[in-house]
Amino acid sequence: MNPYLVRLLQIAQQPSRRIIGLMSGTSLDGLDVALCRLEGHGADTRLTLEQFATIPYDDDVRHRIRQVFAGTQVSLEYLTLLNPWLGLLHADMVLTCLGAWQLKPADVDLIASHGQTVYHAPHHQHQHPDFPLNATLQLGDGDHVAVRSGIITLSDFRQKHLAAGGEGAPLAAYGDYLLLSSPDEERLLLNLGGIANFTYLPRTGHDASTAFSTDTGPGNTLLDATVRAQRPGLAYDEDGRLAAAGHVHEGLLKALLDHPFFSAPLPKTTGPELFGPEYLRQAQTQSNTSTLNLEDLLATLTELSALGVAQAAKQAFGARPALAVYASGGGAHNPALQAALRRHLPGCHFATTAELGIVPDAKEAILFAVLANEAVAGQPISIGAGRQRVPAVTMGKISLPG
C-alpha cells in the first residue's frame, strides 16, 4: 500500500491533527499561513492557533498575478505557467514559516491550500447561456505544494462545492458554523476582504438550515485599486485616513448602487470581475464625476462597501437588524469603513473576531484548515437550505508528496 495513503489513514484516525491553512485573497496582500491544532471534527471541533504569519507579496508577485487576475483576455501560456509557479511559491513560503517556527515538515500533518483566485464566474454573472453552470478558478497547484513541502496537501476546495450545485463561494459558512456558533446570540461573521461577505449563524440548537453565507459587494478591492491608480507609492488607504478626509458624493454613490447585483436575491457571489475599474469608470461617467478628487472618491467607495453589507443584512433580517457582528479581513482595520457600518446598522453590536478568540487576519486561513480536517476526519454535513444551502460534501483534492 502506498505509504502516504497509510499515513493519511493514520492522520484521519488521530485524536488531533496539525494543519497549516493557507489563504491568499483577492486583495493580493500576501499569503496567510495559519498553523492550527484541530481536535475532533464536526460539532465537536476544537481549534488552537499555534502560529500565524502573513508573508507579503512583493511587487513582482503582484504583477505576475495581475497579468491574469479577473481578466477577460489573458495569455493561456502565462496562465499555465503561473499555476505551478504559485504552488512552488506557496510551498516555499510554508517552509520559510516552519523554519522561523523551528518546526520540520514532519511535524505537520496536512496543508490546506486555498490557492489564488484569478477568476470567479457564477452563472448569474458570466452571461453565457451555452454554459448553464457556475465556475471559479484558483491557481497554485496542490501537487507542487505537496512535493516541494513534503506535506500531504488538500487544495482546490471550491470545485466540489460547484459540482454539488453551489457557486463555489463563499465557503466560510461551513467553518464559521462549526467553530463560532453560540447558544447565546445570533451572529454575523463579516469578512471585509477584497470582496465583502458575511455568514449568518443562528443560536446553537436552532435550525441549522437558517445559517447561510453571501457576498455583499466590494470590500477593499475598489478602494485599493483606486489608491494604487492615483497614488502609485501607496498600496492602500492606511487606516482609512484619505477616505475620512473626504465627503461622499451622492450622485456617484447612486450610480454605483444602480447595479442589479445589489438587488439580487440572497445568497449571491461576485468578484473583482464585476466590481473592477471599468465598473467605477462607468459610474463616474454616468454621474459626471470623472475629475472627483481622491479623498471624496475614497469616501464614496467606503460608503459603497458599507452600504453593500447593510443592504444585504436588511434584505435578510429586516429594516433594523439586531445582531452581533464580528469582523475580520483587511477592512476590520479601516476605521472609516467601520464607522460607516455602525452608522448604517445601528442596532448591531460590532467587534472583531478577536473577541471570539480568532485572530481576525488569520480567520480565512483557519477556515480552510477546518475544511481539510473535515475532509479527512469528518462526515459531510449540510448547512442552510434552498439557494442558501452548503451541500453535504467534503471539499479539497488530496495531493501526496510522492
UniProtKB/TrEMBL annotation:
GO terms for molecular function: kinase activity. This is Anhydro-N-acetylmuramic acid kinase. Pathway: Amino-sugar metabolism; 1,6-anhydro-N-acetylmuramate degradation; Cell wall biogenesis; peptidoglycan recycling. It is an enzyme of class 2 (transferase). It catalyses: 1,6-anhydro-N-acetyl-beta-muramate + ATP + H2O = N-acetyl-D-muramate 6-phosphate + ADP + H(+). The keyword Calcium does not apply. Keywords: ATP-binding, Carbohydrate metabolism, Kinase, Nucleotide-binding, Transferase.
